[in-house]
Design a protein that fits this description.
minor pseudopilin epsh fold; mainly alpha
Length: 229
């Protein structure tokens, strides 16, 4: 190891100690659980690659930059940060809301999608809850698409669980998340243009009609079970 390398390593270590973080960044980009082209023809490979590798990576990088100056936040998960957003230092609150929201929302988004041949159907408690709250899966997906289509500009449509175990379908602007309202997100549909523009251009309703074919119902059913036990 050269003297320059040693000095660089020492400086990096000192910076890590000063900020309260280890040498590795606290937040990292999760791998996609499938190939870029796995959701075709509904979501194209180029969109998936850019969306994951570029957009999501940018949220991760910017979140790491934001929290690096606040040692008091060391060790907190992104979910914990967003759940306690109002109590965070004012200097990083907006960045955590936007960048942390982007990281958390996309990390869930990838998991809630699956190839059409593997998407399955709602089962168990989730199937019963969808029947009770929305009149069945088909009526739910119709209402989900309508909610997502109604978002003005960029944002998400969310299915979440409230403190009483009830399903809530609503929307949020930008990278806001049900976590900040004390709810647990089950499913989020991304309606930022980068999620669909390469294939669908300005035809958001077509994207929404397509994405319901690749919802990972098995994952959602297990997730709902965890939230309502």
């Amino acid at each position: 190891m050269t003297r320059r390398t040693l000095l660089g390593a020492a400086a990096a270590g000192a910076a890590a100690v000063a900020t309260g973080w280890s040498a590795d960044p606290p937040f990292t980009l999760p791998k996609l659980p499938y190939a870029y082209d796995a959701l075709e023809p509904y979501i194209d490979a180029q969109t998936m690659q850019i969306h994951h590798d570029k957009h999501h990576q940018a949220y991760v990088d910017n979140l790491n930059k934001a929290v690096a100056s606040e040692p008091s936040l060391a060790g907190m998960t992104v979910e914990q940060l967003l759940s306690k957003l109002d109590s965070l230092p004012a200097a990083v609150r907006t960045a955590v809301r936007n960048q942390g929201g982007g990281h958390a929302n996309h990390s869930l988004f990838w998991l809630t999608l699956a190839p059409a041949s593997q998407s399955g159907k709602p089962s168990g408690a989730l199937a019963a809850a969808l029947d009770k709250s929305f009149g069945g899966t088909d009526k739910f997906t119709d209402k989900l698409r309508a909610s997502a289509a109604s978002v003005f500009g960029s944002g998400w449509a969310w299915l979440s669980v409230d403190g009483s175990g009830n399903l809530v379908l609503d929307t949020a602007p930008n990278q806001d998340t049900p976590l900040t309202a004390g709810r647990k997100p089950v499913l989020g549909i991304d309606v930022w243009e980068h999620a669909y523009y390469l294939k669908y251009q300005n035809r958001r309703p077509e994207y929404l009609a397509a994405i319901v074919h690749v919802i990972n119902w098995d994952f959602l059913s297990h997730r709902y079970d965890e939230f309502t036990r």
